[in-house]
């Protein structure tokens, strides 16, 4: 097609990576006519500056079917994010897919206490409030021989345990539960599950 203008050429709608482009090298200095493949053009994209203000309407160049018949296409950021099942409303994460997070700064799930979350199909809620304030931990005498098989309480004055070891064993269990519940509360607060 000698003596034809570029604007008069037939448009190509199925561009692939080996297609040749007409390039004007150094147009503001000493312009020269050159050729380049679509693949080389994409390599040049890697030298562009990173954008720090990405929006959903921004355009991203992609290579569709790179291992088969590669085709250069464009997508918006919204389209790409929406195609990822984990980020898409109603999307499903593939079975066996794991999420790896960093080990230095770490990753947050939710960035404020007012954001709602739910697990195992429970209705999402904001961060639960703190637990009731814990009473002072009880103190008790250690049982001589721990006896956790508590018998029926005596029904004659004075009412109480059949043996002293039974009573002290029960107090030991209660004190242990206080300690463990306090530890659990602290750990849940540390990861933000409760306030």
Put the structure in a nutshell.
By secondary structure, the protein is α+β, with helices and mostly antiparallel strands. The protein contains three helices and four strands. The protein has a domain at 113-195.
Characterise the protein shown here.
- The protein starts with 19 loop residues before the first strand and ends in a 5-residue tail after the last helix.
- Helices cover 21% and strands 12% of the residues.
- It has a domain at 113-195.
- By secondary structure, it is of the alpha+beta class.
- The radius of gyration is 35 Å and the shape is rod-shaped.
- The longest helix has 27 residues, at 164-190.
- It has helices spanning 38-45, 77-82, 164-190; strands at residues 20-25, 32-37, 59-64, 71-76.
- The protein is built from 3 helices and 4 strands, in the order ββαββαα.
- The protein has a two-stranded antiparallel ribbon.
Tell me the layout of helices and strands.
Layout: E1 20-25, E2 32-37, H1 38-45, E3 59-64, E4 71-76, H2 77-82, H3 164-190
Antiparallel strand pairs: 1-2, 3-4
What string gives the helices and strands in order? EEHEEHH
Average pLDDT? 81
Helix count from the secondary structure assignment: 3
Number of strands: 4
The general outline is rod-shaped
Which range does the strand content fall in?
Answer: 5-15%
Name the descriptors:
alpha+beta; rod-shaped; 195 residues
